[in-house]
């Protein structure tokens, strides 16, 4: 397989009803558009997710499958996928199939038309297909985050993202960091752009998060990111001849 120009990283935990359809959609969206690879990172699923992905490798040369030795969460799965990626740019999708792979060419087009100092193109779910309580909780979380971090991003919870691999790996790592990528990229001196994307109902299985549990973790993480921003210091450098 040729050197990929895009790596699509997809974390998955107990998503046996979604992963094969999602893989097929990614392949359909990207074949003939850009040389790519798809990296699924299984976070110790207890169903048939890993076996299905292993079986799909024979018919999908772009597919790579990573498996955690112990359950470590979505941020760790994304980071391990990015570390293993062979392309200079990485796209992410959630493993539940609610993100639409057909939006990936749109993100690539936005990158190609964008400025060189934009290192993150973040999906913006303009028509969310979630329960009312989940949409309400997300609305308030986004409002609080935006006010405190001033990241000018309407939706940081969308799993659809496109970013430069090197810029991502230069960010401080912590659990749940994937929810704060715009603020962290801006802290590093880069620009970010939000791109409207499609959002779909979950096809199978159930959400791995509750509103209450997410809120408890989110408050602590939000304060931590705000602290990181206040402690940021950067400067350009030059090498003497």
UniProtKB/TrEMBL annotation:
Family annotation (Gene3D superfamilies): Spore Coat Polysaccharide Biosynthesis Protein SpsA, Chain A (3.90.550.10)
GO biological process entries: lipopolysaccharide biosynthetic process
Signal sequence interval, chain numbering: none
UniProt xrefs under InterPro entries: Glyco_trans_2-like, Glycosyltransferase_2, Nucleotide-diphossugar_trans
Name of the featured protein: Dolichol-phosphate mannosyltransferase
Cellular component, GO, one term: plasma membrane
Record carries keyword Transmembrane: yes
Pfam families: Glycos_transf_2
């Amino acid at each position: 397989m040729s050197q990929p120009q895009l790596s699509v990283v997809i974390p998955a935990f107990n998503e046996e009803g979604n992963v094969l359809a999602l893989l097929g959609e990614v392949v359909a969206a990207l074949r003939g558009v850009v040389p790519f690879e798809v990296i699924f990172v299984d976070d110790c699923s207890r169903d048939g997710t890993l076996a299905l992905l292993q079986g799909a490798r024979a018919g999908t040369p772009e597919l790579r499958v990573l498996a955690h030795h112990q359950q470590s969460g979505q941020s760790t799965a994304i980071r391990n996928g990015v570390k293993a990626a062979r392309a200079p740019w990485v796209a992410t999708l959630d493993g539940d199939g609610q993100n639409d792979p057909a939006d990936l060419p749109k993100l690539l087009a936005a990158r190609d038309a964008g400025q060189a100092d934009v290192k993150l193109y973040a999906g913006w779910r303009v028509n969310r297909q979630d329960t009312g309580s989940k949409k309400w909780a997300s609305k308030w979380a986004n409002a609080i985050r935006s006010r405190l971090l001033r990241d000018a991003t309407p939706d940081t919870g969308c799993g659809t993202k496109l970013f430069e691999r090197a810029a991502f790996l230069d960010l401080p790592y912590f659990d749940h960091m994937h929810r704060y990528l715009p603020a962290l990229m801006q802290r590093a001196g880069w620009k970010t752009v939000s791109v409207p994307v499609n959002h779909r109902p979950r096809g199978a299985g159930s959400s791995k998060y509750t509103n209450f549990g997410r809120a408890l973790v989110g408050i602590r993480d939000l304060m931590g990111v705000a602290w990181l921003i206040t402690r940021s210091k950067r400067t350009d450098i030059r090498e003497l001849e």
